[in-house]
Amino acid sequence: MSILENNINAVFDYNLKEQLKKVNQTYQIVQGDDNLDINIIDGGGYRLYDKPLEELNKTLNLYNDKYLLYPVLFFYGFGNGILYKALLQNPNHKIILVFEPDVNIIYTIFKVIDFSKELKENKLLLINPKNLNQYSLKTLCSNNYMFNFLRTYFLEIHCDYYDSKYQEEILKLNSLIQDAIRESIFSHGNSPVDYLQGIKHFIQNIPKMIAHSSYKELLNKRKNLSDTAIIVSTGPSLTKQLSLLKQYQNKASIFCADSAYPILAKANIKSDYVFSLERTDFTSEFFNHDFGEFDKDILFIVKSVVHPNTIKYLEKKKFYGGNYTIFSNPSNFIVNVKLNHFGYFGMGHSVAHMAYTLATYLKHKNIVLIGQDLAYNDIGESHPKDYQNSSTFETDTYEHIDTIAYGAKGMVKTHCIWLWFKSTLENLIATNKFSITYNCTEGGARINGTIEEPFKQVCEKLLKKRFEQTLYKT
């Protein structure tokens, strides 16, 4: 094979590889007296470098002086690629990520310089930033080796050519990478105290977990039972949707957040599933209600690290025919306990993430979100008026931040945690190729990847017949 073919075949990014195979334009290469003195003239007649060799030596001297021991480096712009060949001679540099927006530049250099060894060993990672989204960036940042050195992140611009031509794109990419880094760190947990509390609760909850049905059994018994799942959260807009939800409750699977459970129960709306994942005893109090026979056939699904009070309250509901099951996420400690029969799935960071993930695994073709405001309403309320802990529970907890409103109708106020939850939910939606996701909140923040439609319109379109949920016995 030619140098070009070897290089293209070694590229790890599938989308970039396919784009390179379709390139039909090669830029002009200008070769100086020295073998390393290589310039490129792009399709517009612009040179990438003023003095290629001089700029190469200047950058190498800088990196050998200040960044000699950095294992991971980030660059915007591939240029003639020689810089990365040289930097990878340093055994301390394990991975170099290069974002190159012009595939013709890569193609041109791939014809004359062999990078196949560095590409095959994943030491040189070439990425077209036009192919990126938040999910793919987070996946990159979650790579075990890269994650350990995210604190050293900075995005180096290859040369002035990229700075002048792609300044806005560079700023946008840098912001996206910083967001992805923040999410990756949060997803691993940022409090050792919380982590240890989770381990303690997990150990305390093991006897109850193994006495109830497993995650795999749930999937086997409940998969494909219903086309539509309605996920109910406790944003301030929930109240206005309750009457319609009650009308259609027997025509869809209702996935309910723990905080919405007492609200729905008091409105005589029975959920099929109620979710909880918090470690605090404060959250357990959502289950400290005696709704009697109303709880019959509701399945309470809780994460294995919930406070033992949650399990204590759920045990009482079994008297009336309610039931619960305990699932785990695949954290290192929990996986090493090897209770594999009870299954694992990534539950995200909120009960809405947990519900959305399970709705996907249960093969619901349509997933409908209501009460998923992730923002304050016009009078600053964070929750519905009948929320157990008051409608202003989080009104003054965090600094308010502007974000795009539902339907792109101006801006609404949110906070950093809700934005994090929103981003995670958007990632889940982007990777869910099976379901169509409708945001019927009719308020709050815009959630990218959803179809924004009124709840009534979606119910009339999707929920035409009643279905009976198969009972789930342990």
TrEMBL record:
The lineage of its organism: Bacteria, Pseudomonadati, Campylobacterota, Epsilonproteobacteria, Campylobacterales. This is Putative motility accessory factor. The keyword Ribonucleoprotein does not apply. The keyword Transmembrane applies. InterPro entries: MptE-like (IPR002826). Residues 200-377 form the 6-hydroxymethylpterin diphosphokinase MptE-like domain. Keywords: Membrane, Transmembrane, Transmembrane helix. The chain crosses the membrane at residues 67-87. PANTHER family: 6-HYDROXYMETHYLPTERIN DIPHOSPHOKINASE MPTE-LIKE DOMAIN-CONTAINING PROTEIN, MOTILITY ACCESSORY FACTOR MAF.
